[in-house]
Amino acid sequence: MSKNILIRNVPESIHNWIEEERYYRRMSKQDFIFQVLEKTSTYGQLPLHYFENIHPVAETVPSAISFSFVDLFSGIGGFRLGLQKVGGRCLFSCEWDANAQKTYYSWFGETPYGDIRTLKISDIPDHDILAAGFPCQPFSIAGVSKKKSLGRAHGFKDSTQGTLFFHLATIIENKRPPIVFLENVKNLLSHDNGNTWKVIENTLKDLNYIVYHKVIDACAYVPQHRQRIIIVCFDRDVFGNEIPFSFPEKLASTPLKLKDVLEDNPDSKYTLSNHLWSYLKAYAKKHKEKGNGFGYGLCDLNGITRTLSARYYKDGSEILIPQGKTKNPRRLTPRETARLMGFPDELKIVVSDTQAYKQFGNAVVPAVIETVAKQIIEVIHWHLTSKGRCLIKRQTSTTALESRHPELSHT
């Protein structure tokens, strides 16, 4: 049973009371509620003087800081899972794919807004962190190769996907989130001789953000070689020019092995047919004779896999599970692909196998997001404590809470 409990239909007055009380004590909403519940369950009632005994924790525990975020190009919610694990509260989501929306609704109880190109920026709530795994196909190796073979443009020349980053940039320009947290494929750095990345980086810098980026391999968290570029940006008007941010150096100490995520009794339908297995072996042999590296990937159960791609539904050739000398290998089951990406079993798969393979192949690894988010929280903590500020806001802003309690404002 999941330990995460969702309480619905709480009156607005209670929400406001919790927000003000936790704000006074510099605590996350979660920690404040937990302490209230603990005290209530211990004594059976809540004395009026109780709150004098609640001690602030944010000054010594950075992870106790709460923050809000929006989840753009959200897919099935990998960013959201990672950010919620460290105290984030999602205010808005956006994802155009109907099947991904179905999964997102099943997991989070809300259907993301559809096409970002028709989204009114005024409909996006103010937030602390803008998170986005913006479309990677125009910049991916596979996507570029396919488009070139068809004689089509790619990257920023693509009229349907290449300009989506600029919709994102327009939102950033207008909403001015203090922090921008992005993810994309590793090839983004080298695409078009580096020009694509230069345009993206310079766009963010022109918007007055300090930009950090690093390619992180998720194999420290899941049994899969999966390199992705992580981009973290801080608004200079909020944090200044000297920001103590760094990407995580220490990764998981005991990484999983492929066998750790496999099901005990997978359905026989995932075993390759004789025809498909013969085809894959012949295809691999042909390319090997030509000096190419194309072919199937028969995995070491004690090791890690290749990168799971969105095309895995076609034949599963990049990640095949051996089943002995007398039985053809099999592809991963949808649940195994979920585990390979680090999604917990309690999250139900509510779409077809084909759509599940596409969704997990396109997803971000939540554990990577969570780990980087902890580093971001360190900066938020530094910002709040070193400069004596209450909120992650621009210096000219005044919140509704501060207007009611001017003594709380330090700016």
From TrEMBL:
Record Pfam families: DNA_methylase (PF00145)
Active site: 136
Any one of the GO BP annotations: DNA restriction-modification system
InterPro entries given in the database record: C5-MTase, C5_DNA_meth_AS, C5_MeTfrase, C5_meth_CS, SAM-dependent_MTases_sf
A GO molecular function held by the record: DNA (cytosine-5-)-methyltransferase activity
Keyword Hydrolase in annotation: no
Record-linked PANTHER family: TRNA (CYTOSINE(38)-C(5))-METHYLTRANSFERASE
Name recorded for this polypeptide: Cytosine-specific methyltransferase
